[in-house]
Design goal:
Length: about 120
Amino acid sequence: QVQLQESGGGSVQSGGSLKLSCAASGDTRCMAWFRQAPGKEREGVASIDTKDRIRYADSVKGRFTISQDNAKNTLYLQMNSLKPEDTAMYYCAADPMPKHDTNWSQLARWDTWGQGTQVTVSS
């Protein structure tokens, strides 16, 4: 089974940037970033499939960029113009089935999850 390991989280001030990475131990078909703030449900941030088709949550469009390096089996999330409301634990997810549809962020559709990396944005 594929294993996922996130890195790159940290603390930044509002308006700052961070780049998250997710290293996968094997081949994956579709990957995504999710986040969960304290007391809130886990929500989808962005997804990407093997054809580089991408979906973003409305809250991060224009600020976050998802990308992947297939040769390195690594997923990235470049986060710019960070806001305090972006504070959350960020999780990488993977699944063998394509999910380029409007329901891509349903948690049950994702087979494998990483342990998460914390992002804290101060005002």
